[in-house]
Amino acid sequence: KTDLLYVKNMVTAFRTANGEVSAVRGISFSVKKGETLCVVGESGCGKSITSLSVMGLLPSNGSIKEGSIEFDGNDLVAYSPEQLRKIRGKDMSMIFQEPMTALNPVLTIGYQLREPLMLHKQIGKSEATKQGIDLLKQVGIPYPEKRMKQYPHELSGGMRQRVMIAIALACSPKLLIADEPTTALDVTIQAQILDLIQDAKEQYGMGVMMITHDMGVVAEVADRVMVMYAGEKIEEGNVESIFENPQHPYTKGLLNSVPNLDDPDFELEAIPGSLPNIDEQISGCRFHPRCPYAMDRCKSETPPEYIVAGEHKVKCWLQEADEDVCTTRETVHS
Ligand code: SF4
Ligand code: MG
């Protein structure tokens, strides 16, 4: 499979009252056509900022300082806001945890569904209405004709989330970025929404970047997993390899914490301590203040990325210190 999205050494920083702080500290990853990459980590680790960087939707005090975002052969970092607008909603779409922030409360569902269709497919209003109704049917919304005339507040949370997915999938995007798309929903609706995304992925080879803190969701939908901590990628691999042979102490902690699907505020209790603030200076491994295995060198030296096996990579000094967990000592040079 070829790379649809290839992000290389991306640094995203924000201007704050205390000066410039980096929320994403030089991460590289890819999403291939027809695969789901799950990005996991605690809230505040940089997962959402990573996806907003890719979409060109950073708040005005944020910007990409370094690196490249290759999408479908073009570097999005070099794109103008106008060029980004042209591909957003067409070639790449995003869905969020809270559909009310993405849906416009004063416009009908029909208007919001027709808009991307008319803009990107250059079709007229009546054809867009027809396709809009079909899309609502596809996402399992009963009485779609009636729904087209309603406003977001007239729909339940689960319905709104389906509408948002219908809008995101309207133009059959090559890439879908889903940021905690099911966190606020009950388990049944959560499963239906995940199925919808999986269907679109399988039907036309859409690439999916799914941001979640729920390892249950990861187990269900991921082909590959990227674990982030404090603005860095600390482990990456295919889903089997991450679940069966996790290497980073933080990943092990994530897997030990039992996800409670009913609790949107679920915390990773298995890992004591909390994420550092993004402006906090931490030398060496950024996880060392919380790591039960921290060694002296961890406090001063940043670990390189080691290849565990195949595509499985980890950033942790234990790869050298502990023969038991060390499959190979090869490091990644990029
Ligand atoms: Fe823990 Fe050291 Fe590995 Fe960091 S490099 S995760 S502190 S053992
Ligand atoms: Mg977030």
TrEMBL record:
PANTHER family documented for this protein: DIPEPTIDE TRANSPORT ATP-BINDING PROTEIN DPPD (PTHR43297:SF2), OLIGOPEPTIDE TRANSPORT ATP-BINDING PROTEIN APPD (PTHR43297)
InterPro entries: AAA+_ATPase (IPR003593), ABC_Ni/Peptide_Import (IPR050388), ABC_transporter-like_ATP-bd (IPR003439), ABC_transporter-like_CS (IPR017871), Oligopep_ABC_C (IPR013563), P-loop_NTPase (IPR027417)
Gene Ontology BP annotations: peptide transport
Localization in the cell: Cell membrane
Family: Belongs to the ABC transporter superfamily.
Molecular function (Gene Ontology), one example: ATP hydrolysis activity
One annotated Gene Ontology cellular component of this protein: plasma membrane
Organism: Rossellomorea marisflavi
Pfam families: ABC_tran (PF00005), oligo_HPY (PF08352)
Keyword Endoplasmic reticulum in record: no
Topology with respect to the bilayer: Peripheral membrane protein
Chief localisation class: membrane
Source organism superkingdom: Bacteria
SMART domains in the cross-refs: AAA
Name under which the protein is recorded: Peptide ABC transporter ATP-binding protein
Keywords in alphabetical order: ATP-binding, Cell membrane, Membrane, Nucleotide-binding, Transport
Domain ABC transporter residues, every copy: 5-255
